[in-house]
Design brief:
Elements lengths: L2 H24 L1 H39 L9 H40 L1 H6 L5 H34 L12 H6 L3 H20 L2 H22 L7 E5 L12 E9 L4 E3 L8 H10 L2 E9 L4 H41 L1
Antiparallel strand pairs: 1-4, 2-3, 2-4
Helix pairs in contact: 1-5, 2-3, 2-5, 3-5, 3-7, 3-8, 5-7, 7-8, 7-10, 8-10
Length: 341
């Protein structure tokens, strides 16, 4: 081994941590804010799972024990406090991926391109690929760790009230479903990748911030629209005379008329005066009963995992696109150098 090769081998390992340290130093305020948010959220969720839930459960026990009495003293304030704190914490946790998207688009990549810091780093021995890998890997670890902890504590708080607090949300409530499982973590990672891509593509902080949030909202809407169809639903069929099946507990998918041959059609409008008249009209159109497709509680984890897999696939696509945009940017920089030389 030559002296030059040995010297390069010694210097190479020291260059990687320098990139990470520079990133941490540059974005230290964001790391401090994120850590503070996670700690505060964890403390509030522990408070919700313990004293607040116990007080609300006792309030409902008192109410149910004397609700037929004219005078019914019960801890109404505790019940309302639990409801408010649960709703605020749930919505705050659901908003975290949008906060990640805004930061990634504005500060992580957009501001560095706008100020020229990124291009300066590429000329100081840090390759563009390593620059972007560091900016995605370290924030992804922090985002995944923080949101995973909060999601776990949120599920713990919800479970503590399930069956004890009468106004506790059902498992299939929109916000509760997602903040109780890994879909929120997967969305946060997709938001990070979307923000990084937007910052690279636009090269300006404020436009990248706005577009990143909008893109994340679109991803979230698409995932929510697809979620009921990512796993086979349970379908109940009843006769035309009996109407829809008994009340169910789950995620609604579709309902309507079951027709001959096993097909399904949406429920048509009927202007007959009686239920029997509508049933006769539907039967003339080939209907044999009512169908109702939904996801029961046993589908909770299949829905969570399939939706999370979809969001992580989008995160991978955004990441790939970010490297493609970076390749174009670094190529233009090299071309500019060649023209100057």
């Amino acid at each position: 081994m030559s002296a030059a090769t040995a010297s390069a081998a010694v210097r190479a390992p020291a260059a990687r941590p320098r990139t990470a340290r520079w990133l941490l130093r540059l974005h230290r305020p964001a790391l401090v804010v994120w850590t503070a948010l996670v700690i505060l959220g964890a403390a509030l969720l522990l408070w919700l799972a313990g004293p607040l839930t116990d007080a609300a459960a006792e309030g409902w026990r008192q109410y149910n024990a004397c609700k037929w009495s004219e005078k019914c003293p019960y801890a109404q304030d505790a019940i309302l406090r639990y409801k408010d704190v649960y709703n605020y914490l749930t919505l705050s946790l659901a908003a975290l991926p949008f906060l990640v998207a805004a930061w990634a688009g504005a500060a992580l990549t957009g501001r560095e391109l706008e100020s020229g810091t990124a291009r300066l780093a590429w000329t100081q021995g840090i390759t563009p690929v390593r620059w972007l890998v560091t900016r995605l890997a370290l924030p992804a670890a922090a985002v995944a760790a923080g949101t995973s902890l909060l999601v776990f504590l949120h599920h713990r708080a919800w479970s503590a009230a399930d069956g004890r607090v009468d106004t506790a949300k059902n498992w299939y409530d929109f916000w509760t479903f997602h903040t109780n499982g890994p879909t929120t973590v997967a969305l946060a990672l997709a938001a990070l990748a979307a923000g990084a891509l937007t910052g690279l593509a636009l090269g300006r902080a404020l436009p990248a911030l706005a577009v990143s949030v909008v893109l994340t909202a679109g991803v979230w809407g698409l995932a929510q629209w697809l979620m009921p169809h990512l796993w086979p639903a349970v379908t109940r069929v009843t006769s035309l005379e009996h109407g829809y099946a008994a009340p169910y507990s789950g995620v609604d998918v579709a309902k309507g008329l079951a027709i001959r041959g096993g097909g399904h059609i949406p429920e048509p409008e009927c202007y007959a005066a009686t239920t029997e008249g509508c049933a006769r009209i539907f039967r003339e159109r080939g209907a044999v009963g009512w169908f109702h497709a939904y996801h029961p509680a046993s589908h909770y984890w299949p829905l969570q995992l399939t939706t999370s897999a979809f969001l992580l696939a989008l995160a991978a696509l955004f990441t790939l696109a970010a490297f493609r945009v970076l390749r174009r940017l670094s190529g233009s920089l090299r071309a500019g150098k060649g023209a100057t030389a």
